[in-house]
């Protein structure tokens, strides 16, 4: 469920779909799964089929990759969800943070470009991807078929992602009871 993340500004293979987006608003380096090839260029991988083991982490670290986590169904039968508060408005970010904390009891929080934040919870059953938009900003619930960057360099700030509330064991993440 772990994924290598292409570093920001990494050289990309001309055969990769990422290549066409370099220098555009859709440049996904720093946020997309991928690996560095023997030629030193990066290319994307399918996040839905990547299966990592402990050897991959050291290999990814050696190539300079960040680490992503795939959301959705987990080996224990729960579903990992990432609540992505994608807003640069501080008041909106505080409102979202407070609502998440009330609902889920202060889950782990990842920051890449403050005041944007991402919160982790588990669900007892599948939940579809969803989002609420307000103007140019939004809150997304990342689920099956999605991923987020857990460790690496943020492509806009050039600084490492941080977990200001600290990390917790997967089993200690709050579980949302989903009913049909």
Explain the layout of strands and helices:
Blueprint (H helix, E strand, L loop, with lengths): L1 E4 L28 E3 L5 E3 L9 H10 L2 E5 L1 E2 L5 E8 L3 H15 L4 E2 L6 E7 L6 E5 L2 E6 L4 E5 L23 E2 L4
Parallel strand pairs: 8-12
Antiparallel strand pairs: 1-4, 2-3, 4-11, 5-6, 6-8, 6-10, 7-8, 9-10
Distance between the termini: 26 Å
Total E-strand runs: 12
Strand content: 25-35%
Low-pLDDT ranges: none
The residue fraction in helices comes out at 10-25%
Separate helix tally: 2
User: What structural class do you assign from the helix and strand content?
Assistant: alpha+beta
The global form is globular
Largest sheet: 7 strands, mixed
- H/E element order: EEEHEEEHEEEEEE
The value of Rg in angstroms is 16 Å
**Average pLDDT rating:** 91
Task: Explain the overall architecture.
With 180 residues, the chain is an alpha+beta fold. It has helices at 54-63, 90-104, and strands spanning 2-5, 34-36, 42-44, 66-70, 72-73, 79-86, 109-110, 117-123, 130-134, 137-142, 147-151, 175-176. A hairpin with a 5-residue loop joins strand 5 and strand 6 (79-86).
């Amino acid at each position: 469920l772990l994924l290598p993340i292409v570093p920001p500004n990494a050289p990309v293979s001309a055969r990769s779909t990422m290549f066409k987006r370099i220098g555009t608003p859709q440049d996904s380096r720093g946020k997309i799964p991928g690996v560095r090839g023997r030629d030193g260029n990066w290319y994307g991988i399918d996040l839905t089929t990547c299966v990592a083991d402990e050897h991959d982490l050291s290999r990814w670290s050696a190539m300079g990759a960040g680490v992503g986590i795939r959301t959705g169904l987990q080996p224990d039968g729960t579903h990992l969800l990432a609540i992505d508060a994608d807003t640069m408005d501080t008041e909106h970010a505080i409102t979202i943070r407070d609502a998440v904390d009330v609902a889920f009891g202060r889950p782990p929080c990842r920051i890449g470009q403050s005041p944007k934040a991402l919160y982790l919870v588990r669900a007892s059953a599948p939940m579809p991807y969803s989002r609420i938009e307000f103007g140019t900003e939004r809150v997304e619930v990342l689920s099956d078929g999605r991923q987020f960057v857990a460790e690496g360099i943020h492509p806009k700030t050039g600084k490492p992602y941080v977990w200001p509330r600290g990390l917790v064991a997967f089993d200690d993440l709050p579980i949302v009871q989903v009913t049909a």
